[in-house]
Design a protein that fits this description.
Blueprint: H1 3-9, H2 16-26, H3 38-50, E1 60-67, H4 82-93, H5 97-105, E2 108-115, E3 126-128, H6 146-166, E4 171-177, H7 182-193, H8 197-200, H9 209-226, H10 233-240, H11 243-257, E5 262-264, H12 267-279, E6 287-289, H13 298-305, H14 321-339, H15 343-346
Parallel strand pairs: 1-2, 1-4, 2-3, 4-5, 5-6
Length: about 350
């Protein structure tokens, strides 16, 4: 059995029994019932994922996948493709936003080159797993072959599993880097949700109205040229996606197979999550939406997955930045559930 199929086979639904036990304990803690709001719901969801009524989350790992996209030739981004490689170097030197925010969250960043167009010299901390120097132009044909799509997914799984074996983590998160990658993400989302490109395509790195209209037309052309089948998640990735989107989907699948909570970052990460959910619907049980991006269509993508974002801070950077900010919330929710005293333990009178 291939790695992709064996990982999917290992995914089973989250434990509703553990979620109910966690909620019952929340009602016994020294506070008015429900007074910690969505933290209580979050702790129960994580209890279901980890299949224990009192989960204890260790330090986190944020998987930042990088690749370039041939569709940038259509003028869908304000930035040149060489920025992807430059930002990967910034991640590795610790100077990027995700570097700073991950340090604040006590999490490690795992950076991988799945298809950056510019060669990146070997460096400590870099997973050099280039499938090809950028995907093909989706407005002219498929982004990649099915074999390359499978390789992207399985590379994401491999990186996750290797990192976990070397130094286990209690919670994972996704991040991305790739100039132009909101365009294939919107195309993937349109194919899998049935929403029109006009409902999904946003400004990306700051396009004006004319730029957005051009981008909508590019996504419409990509859908018309490639005829993606929404019932074939691997085919959708091959037709419309990117190597980093596929690797993010692989991370989502690997986290679900290990029953670990997985924070989905922004627009690009959510496209990867949609691919993962199309391949293994139960993987959605292990996803937590870190934040709501102002990119048009992101909330609709999350709604398709049945996810409600934890934060709404106007973040539109990617890299995993929203996930890094949300990670301490998940850890805090579990600590409250596990460490807070019950009325009986504290000798505090409960309500009549």
């Amino acid at each position: 059995m291939h790695l992709l199929e064996s990982t999917i086979a290992a995914i089973s639904p989250a434990s509703q029994a553990s979620a109910l036990a966690a909620l019952a304990r929340q009602d016994e803690l020294t506070k008015p019932r429900g007074s910690l709001g969505r933290l209580e719901e979050l702790s129960a969801r994580i209890a279901a994922m980890c299949d224990t009524p009192r989960p204890r989350l260790g330090p986190g790992a944020i998987f930042v996948m990088a690749a370039d996209h041939g569709v940038t030739a259509e003028g869908v981004s304000l930035y040149p493709p060489e920025v992807t490689a430059q930002m990967v170097a910034n991640f590795l030197s610790g100077g990027a936003a995700i570097s700073v925010l991950s340090r604040a969250a006590g999490a490690r960043v795992v950076t991988a080159d799945l298809g950056v167009a510019v060669p990146i010299p070997p460096a400590p901390g870099l997973w050099a797993r280039k499938i090809r120097a950028g995907s093909s132009n989706i407005a002219r044909g498929p982004a990649m072959s099915r074999e390359e799509a499978r390789k992207a997914l399985e590379t994401g799984i491999e990186i996750f599993e290797t990192e976990y074996a070397a130094l286990p983590f209690g919670i994972a998160a996704t991040g991305d880097m790739g100039i132009g990658n909101t365009t294939p993400s919107a195309a993937v989302a349109s194919a899998l949700t049935g929403l029109s490109p006009a409902e999904l395509v946003g400004r990306g790195t700051g396009l004006d109205d004319a730029g957005v209209a051009r981008k909508v037309a590019v996504v419409e052309k990509a859908l018309a040229v490639n005829h993606p089948d929404p019932a074939d998640g691997l085919g959708v990735l091959a037709a419309l996606g990117g190597f980093e989107i596929g690797a993010i989907a692989g991370v989502c699948l690997a986290a679900a197979a290990r029953r670990l909570p997985l924070l989905v970052d922004g627009f690009i990460s959510t496209a990867g999550a949609l691919i993962a959910a199309s391949l293994a619907p139960a993987a959605k049980d292990f996803m937590i939406a870190a934040h709501a991006s102002p990119e048009r269509g992101h909330r609709a993508m999350l709604a398709h997955l049945g996810l409600e974002p934890l934060l709404d801070l106007g973040l539109r950077l990617g890299e995993g930045t929203g996930a890094a900010l949300a990670m301490p919330l998940c850890q805090a929710a579990c600590r409250v559930l596990d460490e807070m005293a019950t009325f009986a333990e504290a000798g505090v009178s409960d309500k009549e």
